[in-house]
Amino acid sequence: MTESPLPIDVGGPAQPLLDVRGIQKHFPIKGGFFGSTVATVRAVDGISFTILKGETLGIVGESGCGKSTTARLLMRLMDPDKGSMIFDGEGVAENTQTGGITMRDYRRQVQMVFQDSYASLNPRLPIEDSLAFAPKVHGLGDGEARERARELLAAVGLAPAQYARRYPHELSGGQRQRVNIARALALRPRLVILDEPVSALDKSVEAQVLNLLVDLKESFGLTYAFISHDLNVVQYISDRVLVMYLGKVVEMGPVEEIYERPAHPYTRALLASRPSMDPENRRTEPPLSGDPPNPVNPPSGCRFRTRCPHAEDVCAAREPIDADLGGGHQAACHMADPGSGHSQAGRLAA
Amino acid sequence: MSAALQMAGKDTLVRVRDLSVRFVSRDATVHAVNGVDLDLAAGEVLCILGESGSGKSVTMRALMKLLPKKAVVTGGILVDGRDVQAMHENELQEFRGSTVAMVFQEPMTALDPVFTVGKQISETVRRHEGVSQAAGMARALELFELVQIPSAKRRLDAYPHELSGGLRQRAMIAVALACRPKLLLADEPTTALDATVQIQILLLLRQLQQELGMGVVFVTHDLGVAGEIADRVAVMYAGRVVEEGPVTALMRGPLHPYAKGLLGATVHSGMRGKRLTTIPGAPPSLEALPNACSFAPRCVEAEPACLAAVPAPRSPIPGRTARCIHVPDNVAG
């Protein structure tokens, strides 16, 4: 058995690599007398976006906003309750007779790197064997798979002769994260989902791994979905940015637009919460008070209205639409939508 | 007590001289802290900045004598004029809380899950000040208002798990402030929090520190956090303070190559598209530290002289020191 052929670009460069349409994931909380559902965590509540070929899409938000659930849905580690995903023109896990892509082929082309570098490696396998595992499953011979594992180790900056036979516990956190990145590349995927890949690393190591990710994207022709709570890291690595709040996309657009002309009050607050890096000009007022609300019972209408300084009656009554601000920049805020009835509506419109 | 320790001035709250901490086990000896000198004036905020394994948390715990029995601690620690090393268990119980208090990274493990937060604060107050239960609860309410917990009265009856992360951290700060400590030790208190909550807690700590005139030792790995809260910063590497100085000067022009590397490796806005400066390699093993500059193997400026001995602190301008042989020593003494 030989390895199945390498995936090829189907729809050309203009077609999004992944088109996500209205995906939703709710988790029931069981309780009560007979384990009935007492509440629902609305982790991801109908979000749509595209990931273009060759770009890095940054996904930011605070804990509980649904960014990690989104990562797991993209990887299909869980199935969405609603919505669909189209990978390079083909429906994911749909009926293959009508032109869908099978799960096996999809997972071959989409891989993931997790935050916890230790938990995501098998502690009983030398890293070389961990790396060779997936290629063997996909039909590569023993020797070839081992060869590929060593090439990958070299590509992520770990000398194979020195590291190939080591076990995960014999490596530092940064080295283990390099192994995880190598493993994600073992099947030559086109899309890599990076879920907080540098959050557990020390600053000096974080910079090494970020440089590595930039290099690998170039040399392997990859597309990234980069999920992080660190706004500076997202700004550094992303081409476009998607901001999430309580299971919804509140703002999306090119990185310069989001960081220089943020339209949604939440994005503005998030950016203003970053440490100033200048002891002479320290922050004096916290941009927001309180913690993000619980995604079990999100507020009606706009979910940010409970913490928003500009909230009005319309914000509680109606959910904002994704207002188009031009140049691929959109914000789900009544103030960005001229027809919303908010007293400051239209001020931001293009 | 050594002579150097006794020289402490009137407004010196903390004076640490040649502090070393070793953890000895059957297999190995880990040299976690290797000769640290620190000074903190009353009402001053000192940030100890370092990566994992640099010895920053161990140094801080030594100030409260919180290290496990197997830790071998040498050197002198003077807090508020008292020799911490010489204290007995019953002295420590009085010392902790009323002179020194600590705030931890993870409030869920620092607070007791089976008692309400109000009960935990009033307990602390009663234990130290011997007041009635009603007076203890009144003080708890006062503290909750001090740390700006909304609907404070109702929240006193909450158990830790019923509070959000930010409120839990505020509750822990309230417990720490219960007996008006002169020195607050904070071990990465904002690391586990979301960005919009982290800035709230940092601003709260800064405000409380100024209002109450406390000295604060704040341990962090985040340069940005240090920039928001510190008066002075001590950068630690492999159990030594490699650079120390006022926060603005240090962030604008670090002296030690490690501090330079750390600043260059910290991603901030305006670095997009540029290659990040990295520090090659990884920190050394603390089991066998050479008698040399421990950063030399990773340092771009290293030369044979760096391996000859541990560099002594050198001071190019008053108030700043760095342990690097390339830093000029202009300040006599």
From TrEMBL, chain A:
Record field: catalytic activity: glutathione(out) + ATP + H2O = glutathione(in) + ADP + phosphate + H(+)
Primary localisation category: membrane
Gene3D superfamilies linked: P-loop containing nucleotide triphosphate hydrolases (3.40.50.300)
One biological process term in Gene Ontology: transmembrane transport
Membrane topology: Peripheral membrane protein
Keyword Secreted: no
One Pfam family this sequence matches: oligo_HPY
Assigned EC number: 7.4.2.10
Assigned keywords, A-Z: ATP-binding, Cell inner membrane, Cell membrane, Hydrolase, Membrane, Nucleotide-binding, Repeat, Translocase, Transport
Superkingdom to which the source organism belongs: Bacteria
Gene Ontology molecular function: any one: ATP hydrolysis activity
Cellular component GO terms held in the UniProt record: plasma membrane
Localization annotation: Cell inner membrane
Annotated region described as Disordered, given as residue ranges: 272-301
InterPro entries recorded: AAA+_ATPase, ABC_transp_ATP-bind, ABC_transporter-like_ATP-bd, ABC_transporter-like_CS, Oligopep_ABC_C, P-loop_NTPase
Statement: the UniProt record of this protein carries the keyword Translocase: yes
Compositionally biased tracts (Pro residues): 289-298
Binding partners and assembly: The complex is composed of two ATP-binding proteins (GsiA), two transmembrane proteins (GsiC and GsiD) and a solute-binding protein (GsiB).
Similarity comment: Belongs to the ABC transporter superfamily. Glutathione importer (TC 3.A.1.5.11) family.
PANTHER family found in the cross-reference section: GLUTATHIONE IMPORT ATP-BINDING PROTEIN GSIA (PTHR43776:SF15), TRANSPORT ATP-BINDING PROTEIN (PTHR43776)
Protein name in UniProt: Glutathione import ATP-binding protein GsiA
The organism's taxonomic lineage, starting at the top: Bacteria, Pseudomonadati, Pseudomonadota, Alphaproteobacteria, Acetobacterales
